[in-house]
């Protein structure tokens, strides 16, 4: 640990000692585009208040020699400009002797640029409030990989983002459970974002341009999440030539294709697991596979018009009972358990003037879980094994948005209309499935009955308004709000939003914000909160008059170039959530509770070739208030520390280290077990004849304190080595990842065994030391 911290301190302070005062020197480096990290050619690098300048080459490299007569002050200011990008300013302290200084520059593309079709085609995400934490495509490739590059697992390096366990990619953000976050793909909601029941996300990393995390106090452009917003932006296809690329990882294989088609660009992507195919080659059976498909086309209608369409489709198939066919006689068509998403959208973007932007879009998003299996035991035909599931979520709608900069005001308006519907039907009476998860229907919600049928629907009509304007040269204020009419609640919700930014110097930003929010849907799955089945929890519309609400208050500071190439972001927050629903584990009654979360998040980023580093630390507390009693919330994670270090001495070789530390989640452990009442094990007697017709005493746990225990502290070190090489026009990138390098045993509590007195914890170990290899290719 000390060695890691010492190395981080060295990487942080090294640039300070490498730039010392002098009389003449040369500055050189590379100019790259933000997000894509592509070279920016013909960018002008100029010494401020002088005619000394140079331009970058096709590879983005520049070199600027400064003669002695140019050194008129202790600090030099360099201006970097290129058409279609925001201007950049860099400050250098003079060296004490002749010296070569390396300075790489990242340029951000302008959002609107009428004269450049490329910038219009690659429309930027319209975001009135910049994301406090974000990851781009290049960073995703360098971050830890567990089987493959996973967008959500990569996001876990950001401050305030927790994880349930190594077997779940679901996110815990500032104490908020997964159902309290809004996940968007190009501004379209994603209802079930996971394959494998939560182990891996459905988002193919090859199509991702960047990931923005709005951990709290998100702008009123979005709604329906009491905790946070995770917005995934997909890449734009190349407009100059076709590119074919893909990868083969431990979990799946991917292929993607993009390039110009007609007067637009097209991107296609596909991903599939392959264990079932390998098993077939060796005459074996593997019950599970998943796949997903992605397509995106952008049509450049005119210089300031573009139309884009998006399609995403995913499916998981789990034929859990295939290898037991000989035991059964089947009736009717058999549909093994399957689940997945369908997402489609079309958007028109129009830039009527340099200071105006308008978008109109329509979208459809849905999620399903289905299975149909009716069969009888061959040796006992009177015993039926039944798995009938037909669950679906469907949402479709349209929205429009207009932005206009007039005088000193940046105005943004939007309207949205959508129809949301839920349908849940199941009959589950299966002893076989109970051996996988017991009882199986509780993957949907706590204490779910074996037979269930329900339909719900909602019409939403809403909109937002924002005005960003300066109070002074250093102080900017943003005032706005959102209104939403929810048909099921028969009420209009109005939520204000305020944000102030104070920028006294070029590298210091101080901000404070306040916002009110509501939770559009709720889940009832506390008992499955840390299991791999929690991703199947079905959403419900809140009871009338009991919609959960939240108040967010944050204050933070961002400091850039405290030391060269080091950026620090610090934010404190307080989240107060009301009317959150729950089902009591004592008497199974449904009630609501309040939860207050307070904490501080720190993110430090360092980047100076060949080194790159990230340190994030979070300290917080979530306290739940229920029936006058206060106790830790389900996802009260007090401390999180993550360190990422990477060294890329060449374009083809890199080494990276990732270290994580999480304190444990609280959980409820019964103090004792009450034996009373009887339970007839009729269904299980079909599979275990020795208990046929027996009556068993029911064991009921007795709780005295809730969430009074905590799972152990977790920490893990991963090492990744990557190497690339070129064979003619084929670029190959290979990586080798070692997880849990020092072999830490990290137990997780998966259940409380109430068959013993006193009850005992049932534990399993998280990831051991494992070597994972993968390869990526590009043509």
How would you explain this protein's 3D organization?
By secondary structure, the protein is mainly β. The protein has two domains: 21-109, Carboxypeptidase-like, regulatory domain (Immunoglobulin-like, Sandwich), CATH 2.60.40; 133-649 and 658-668 and 772-778, TonB-dependent receptor, beta-barrel domain (Maltoporin, Chain A). It has seven helices and 47 strands. The strands form nine sheets. It has a 22-stranded antiparallel β-barrel. A five-stranded mixed beta sheet has the order 9-16-17-12-13. β12 (181-185) and β13 (188-189) form a beta hairpin. The radius of gyration is 28 Å and the shape is globular. Mean pLDDT is 81; it is low at 1-23, 111-126 and 677-696.
Structural class: mainly beta
Distance between the termini: 41 Å
Low-confidence stretches: 1-23, 111-126, 677-696
Radius of gyration: 28 Å
In CATH, the homologous superfamily of the largest domain goes by the name TonB-dependent receptor, beta-barrel domain
The major pleated sheet works out as: 22 strands, antiparallel, barrel
Any idea how many domains? 2
Mean pLDDT score: 81
CATH topology of the largest domain: Maltoporin, Chain A
Query: Which percent range fits the helix content?
Result: under 10%
The number of strands is: 47
**Range of strand content:** over 45%
User: What is the annotated CATH architecture of the largest domain?
Assistant: Beta Barrel
- CATH class of the largest domain, named Mainly Beta
* Overall geometry: globular
Count every helix, treating DSSP H or I runs of 4 or more residues as helices: 7
């Amino acid at each position: 640990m000390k060695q890691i911290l010492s190395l981080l301190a060295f990487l942080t302070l090294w640039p300070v000692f490498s730039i010392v005062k002098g009389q003449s020197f040369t500055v050189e480096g590379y100019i790259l585009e933000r997000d894509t990290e592509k070279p920016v050619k013909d960018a002008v690098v100029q010494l401020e208040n002088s005619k000394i300048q140079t331009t970058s080459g096709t590879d983005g490299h520049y070199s600027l020699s400064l003669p002695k007569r140019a050194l008129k002050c202790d600090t030099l200011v360099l201006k970097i400009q290129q058409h279609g990008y925001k201007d950049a300013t860099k400050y250098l302290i003079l060296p004490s002797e002749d010296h070569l200084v390396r300075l790489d520059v990242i340029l951000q593309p302008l959002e609107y640029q009428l004269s450049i079709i490329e910038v219009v085609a690659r429309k930027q995400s319209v975001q009135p409030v910049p994301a406090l934490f974000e990851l781009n495509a290049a960073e995703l490739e360098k971050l830890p990989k567990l089987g493959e590059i996973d967008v959500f697992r990569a996001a876990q390096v950001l401050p305030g983002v927790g994880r349930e366990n190594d077997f779940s990619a679901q996110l815990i953000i500032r104490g908020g459970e997964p159902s309290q976050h809004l996940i968007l793909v190009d501004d379209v909601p994603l209802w079930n974002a996971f394959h494998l029941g939560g182990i891996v996300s459905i988002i193919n990393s090859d199509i991702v341009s960047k990931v923005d995390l709005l951990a709290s106090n998100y702008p009123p452009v979005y709604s329906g999440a009491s905790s946070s917003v995770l917005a995934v932006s997909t890449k734009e296809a190349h407009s100059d030539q076709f590119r074919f690329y893909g990868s083969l990882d431990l979990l799946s294989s991917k292929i993607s294709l993009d390039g110009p088609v007609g007067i637009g660009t097209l991107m296609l992507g596909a991903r599939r697991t392959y264990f079932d195919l390998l098993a077939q080659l060796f005459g074996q059976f593997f019950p599970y596979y998943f796949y997903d498909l992605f397509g995106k086309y952008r049509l450049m209608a005119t210089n300031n018009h573009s139309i884009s369409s998006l399609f995403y489709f995913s499916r998981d198939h789990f034929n859990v009972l295939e290898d037991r066919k000989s035991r059964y006689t089947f009736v009717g068509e058999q549909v093994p358990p399957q689940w997945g998403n369908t997402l489609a959208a079309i958007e028109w973007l129009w830039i009527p003037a340099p200071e105006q932007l308008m978008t109109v879009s329509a979208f459809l998003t849905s999620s399903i879980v289905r299975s149909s299996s009716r069969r009888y035991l061959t040796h006992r035909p009177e015993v039926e094994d039944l798995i009938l599931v037909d669950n679906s979520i469907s949402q479709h709608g349209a929205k429009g948005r207009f932005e206009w900069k007039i005088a000193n005001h940046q105005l943004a308006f939007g309207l949205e209309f959508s129809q949301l519907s839920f349908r849940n039907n199941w009959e589950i009476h299966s002893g076989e499935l109970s051996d996988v998860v017991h009882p199986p229907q509780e993957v949907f919600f706590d204490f779910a009955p074996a037979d269930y049928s329900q339909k719900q629907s909602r019409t939403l009509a809403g909109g937002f308004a924002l005005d960003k304007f300066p109070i002074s040269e250093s102080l900017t204020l943003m005032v706005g709000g959102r209104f939403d009419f929810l048909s099921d609640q028969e009420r209009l919700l109005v939520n204000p939003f305020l944000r102030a930014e104070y920028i006294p110097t070029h590298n210091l930003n101080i901000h404070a914000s306040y916002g009110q929010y509501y939770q559009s849907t709720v889940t009832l799955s506390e008992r499955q909160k840390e299991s791999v089945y929690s991703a199947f929890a079905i959403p419900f519309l809140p009871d009338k008059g009991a919609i959960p609400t939240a108040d967010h208050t944050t204050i933070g500071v961002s400091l850039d170039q405290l030391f060269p190439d080091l950026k620090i972001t610090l934010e404190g927050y307080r989240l107060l959530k009301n009317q959150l629903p729950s089902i009591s584990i004592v008497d199974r009654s449904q009630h609501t509770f309040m939860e207050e979360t307070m904490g501080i998040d720190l993110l430090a980023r360092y980047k100076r070739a060949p080194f790159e580093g990230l340190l994030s630390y979070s300290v917080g507390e979530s306290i739940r208030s229920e029936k006058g009693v206060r106790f830790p919330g389900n996802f009260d994670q007090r401390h999180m520390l993550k360190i990422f270090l990477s060294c890329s001495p060449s374009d083809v070789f890199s080494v990276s280290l990732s270290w994580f530390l999480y304190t444990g989640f609280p959980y409820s452990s019964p103090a004792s077990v009450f034996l009373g009442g009887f339970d007839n094990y009729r269904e299980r007697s079909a599979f275990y004849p020795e208990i046929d017709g027996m009556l068993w005493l029911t064991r009921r746990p007795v709780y005295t304190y809730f969430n009074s225990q905590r799972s152990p502290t977790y920490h893990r070190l991963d090492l990744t080595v990557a190497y690339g090489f070129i064979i003619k026009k084929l670029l190959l990138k290979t990586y080798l990842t070692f997880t849990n390098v020092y072999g830490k045993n990290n137990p997780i509590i998966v259940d409380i065994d109430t068959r013993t007195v006193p009850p005992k914890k049932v534990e399993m170990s998280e990831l051991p030391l494992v070597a994972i290899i993968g390869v990526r290719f590009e043509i």
